[in-house]
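Office hours follow-up: a student asked to see two folded examples consecutively, so here they are.
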Amino acid sequence: MQVPQALIQSLQSVVGFDSVAFEQVHASGDQVVSIRLNPSKSVISPSLNLEAKVPWCEHGYYLKERPFFTFDPLLHAGAYYVQEASSMFVLQALQQLMPDQAGKKVLDLCAAPGGKSTLLASHFKEGLVVSNEVIKNRATILVENMSKWGTAASVVTNNDPLHFQSLPGYFDLILADAPCSGSGLFRKDPDAIEHWSEDNVVLCSQRQQRILADILPALKENGILLYSTCSYSEAENEAISDWLVAEMGMTSMSLELAAEWGIVETISTTYAAKGYRFYPNRLRGEGFFLAAFQKKEAVGFKKQKPNQITGLSKNELEQLKASLPLIEGLAYFQQSGAIRAIPEQWMAEIGLLASHLYIKKAGIEIGSLKGRDLVPAHELALSSLLQAGFPVLEIDLEQALLYLKRKDLVLNGQNGWNLLQYCGLSLGWVKVLPNRINNYYPAQWRILKD
């Protein structure tokens, strides 16, 4: 693999850069494979050959080899997320800067496909995570991955960053993993080399400034901004940090590093803002940059009248509770003919967010009432809200793959709805009828490969 010489030359004066070692690690063809476990599901897949923990992320693991993830049912059950190890450093930043996560409202601005959003959801167990993606088809993938992760206090939106200015001073934390020139991912995606150019770096830097200028009004006073890229270029990293301090009034925040991690702390040229660089020749991970800032400007959130969210009638609520025992502390509402649930403390926020944003998903879809019966939703099966009430069928790998391909199954189950589980984790629903079994795995998520 030949790294662009223009990139090499541009990095010669950057702290921690070793051109010889950098080129050697790219030429080696070595690949680093890592996953992050879902702490709310706590099942380790038998198909994963775990090698060592990612040192800066308690739920992260390196694998000895790359399996064919698509054919692991526990990936589809949300037991883990395949995530690049360097980007898991976001969790370390959260633990250091915002350890008290209760009641916090956080935004993952450029969230698809969902790696950092699922990480936020695992950290902010008592917070509200809003995951946004401006590109429509990528927002659909984000919905799928957040559904599989199973977090109830989450919202997925499909908006431009500018739209969030209608929520001034709203979020306690914003993560902006900005679109970038992608040089940090050359090892993972060699095709990215063909699209890299110095002109594209300049364009990305300008776009990053626009995105940040649009979103920062939505950050509350003393709120935290985490800015990250998968680029090595100073124009997209330290130069953006200087711009944030000079033009946006942000204050740089520092993080503690263990020397053995191999992460390099940098200081921006003009305002000495701290940044953290990941070089693949210094650690087991790809190229990554992260910087943290605090907003000092006093912009308070203005109380606004939220949209009216359609709740359940008394009869509907009684019918739901008769069909399905659920955990305490949930509020129920209707969206597009389906019943959804979210922790009670966040119900008012759903109406407020819906007043200003296009919501793709809010909370967990429970299902829909057909006559006196509940048709359970796939999201319910993958969530932590389901306590009991349905027969459970434990299936083997072959049966699980048939289910995930949405093919016919032969199972011995009770008539009616049955919950399928593999290695103790739920995969979804089937309905057992006298002469057949209906497979209710979502058609748009099915495995297409044989």
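And the second, which I mentioned at the end of office hours:
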Amino acid sequence: MAIPASLIHSLQTATGFRKEAFEAVHDSGEQVVSIRLNPSKPFDSSHLPIAGNVSWCEQGRYLFERPFFTFDPFLHAGAYYVQEASSMFLWQAIQQIVPESYGKKVLDLCAAPGGKSTLLSSYFKDGLVVANEVIKNRANTLVENCSKWGEGNLLVTNNDPSHFQAIPGFFDVLMIDAPCSGSGLFRKDPTAVEVWSEANVTLCSQRQQRILADAVPCLAENGVLIYSTCSYSQVEDESICDWLLEEMEMESIGLTLDSQWGIVETISEARKAFGYRFYPDQVKGEGFFLACFRKKKEVFSVKSKIKNLPVTSKLQIQQLQAAIQLPENLSFFDQNDAIRAIETRWMHELSILANHLYIKKAGIEIASMKGKDIVPSHELAVSAWFMGGFPSIDLDKENALAFLKRKDFSAEGQKGWNLMRFGGLPIGWAKLLPNRINNYYPAEWRILKE
């Protein structure tokens, strides 16, 4: 692979850069495959070619080779997420800088397709995680992946970063995996080399500053900012760290590394900010950069207006609770002809967010009501909240894949609504009728490949 000469030249002064080894690993054709397990959905992973653990993330696993993930029902059940190993370092970072996760409000600003959002929702299980994506079609993918992950503490929004200025000091943790020039993905995606240019690096650096300037006001005083890119370029990495300290009144936070990880700690030239570089010749992963900061600027409290959410009627709640076993301490509200739920302690925060942002997904969609009949939602099926109330049917792999393709499949069980499962994990709903089976797997999520 021919790495752009201008990139190699720019990296000569980058801490830890080793030209010959860097070029050799890109020429090798080696591919690193990794997944992150969902701690809320334990499953038998023996069918996956697991090669070992990702040292900096306790749920991370390396694979010997890349299987055809699309044809693994466990992926569609949300049992794991296919995520690049270097980016899983986010888990290590938040463990060190936010050891107390309870009650934290977290924003993943540039969230699609959802790798970091699902990781954050697993770590901040007792917090509230908002996953935002500005591009509409990418936001739809984010909704799908967050829904399959199944945590009820996840909200998905579709907003420009500037919209979050309406809620100053709202979040305790701000994750910005900024749009970048993508040089860290050259080995994984050789086509990225073709679109890389010095001009795009400069453009990305300017865009990163604009996004940060728009978003930092929504971070609380003493709140934590985690900034990352998949770029090697210093103007997108260390220079941005200096800019944050100079312009945004941030304080750099250093992390503790294990020397065996191969991660390179850098110190920015102007303001001595800590950063962490991942070179593929030194770590088992792709190119990545991450830096952590604490906000020192005082935030003046502003009383935010709330939006009154359409409350589900007591009768419908009684019907739901009689039919479906759910956790306690949930509040129910209506959205788009469906009943959704969120932990009661987050209703006030949800009302504030709903007043200022476009919310595509809040909590878990439980069901819709057709007269007296309850139509359970797919989000409920794959959520960590569903505790019973409908019979279930365990499918073999052939029938599970047919179900996920919305094709005819075989299942024997009680007439009416049944939860389809594979390997003990729910994958969706079907309704057994006397002469047919109605498949309720979401049509837009079905497997299209044969």
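Two things to take away from it. The CA atoms of residues 26 and 187 lie 5 Å apart. The radius of gyration is 23 Å.
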